[in-house]
Amino acid sequence: MKLEHLACYVRDLEKMKDFYMKYFNAIPNEKYHNPRTGLMTYFLSFEDGARLEIMTRPDMQQAERTLMQSGFIHIAFKLGSKEKVDQMHERLKEEGFIILSGPRTTGDGYYELAFLDPENNQIELVA
């Protein structure tokens, strides 16, 4: 079995598409728009074949979120080395992103950095 894709509702579809393209080399498909519901989506493809669907629609609800809640809580990208994690850490700090933790070696052996994307979704970067 293979995980086909993950999906995430976002407030600013174009900004989030650009974020994933800039920092993770995502390749978007052509934007889908359903004029009946107002749904708009992009499928973002990554070099290893993983895909993330980002979606928005006019009737989307915005609930208050915390980092410690049930449900999906973060997405992790494997960068391939500690040096790449450290380089991304410097880049993200310089560009004003909120760093939650790291870079550090976790108790389960991951070398990781956790930060918030432009819409406060948690992203982990691992070596």
Percent of residues in helical segments?
10-25%
Per CATH, the superfamily of the largest domain is 2,3-Dihydroxybiphenyl 1,2-Dioxygenase, domain 1
| Low-pLDDT windows of residues | none
For the record, the count of structural domains works out to 2
Order of helices and strands: EHEEEEEHEEE
The number of distinct helices, counting runs of at least 4 residues, comes to 2
The appropriate CATH architecture of the largest domain is Roll
> Measured on Cα atoms, how large is the radius of gyration?
15 Å
Strand content: 25-35%
How would you describe this structure to a colleague?
- The chain folds into two domains: 6-56, Roll (2,3-Dihydroxybiphenyl 1,2-Dioxygenase, domain 1); 74-126, 2,3-Dihydroxybiphenyl 1,2-Dioxygenase, domain 1 (Roll).
- The longest helix has 13 residues, at 82-94.
- The strands form two sheets. Strands 1, 2, 3, 4 and 5 form a five-stranded mixed beta sheet that branches. A four-stranded mixed beta sheet has the order 6-9-8-7, with helices on one face.
- It is built from two helices and nine strands; from the N terminus they run βαβββββαβββ.
- The two termini are 25 Å apart.
- It is globular, with a radius of gyration of 15 Å.
- With 127 residues, it is α+β, with helices and mostly antiparallel strands.
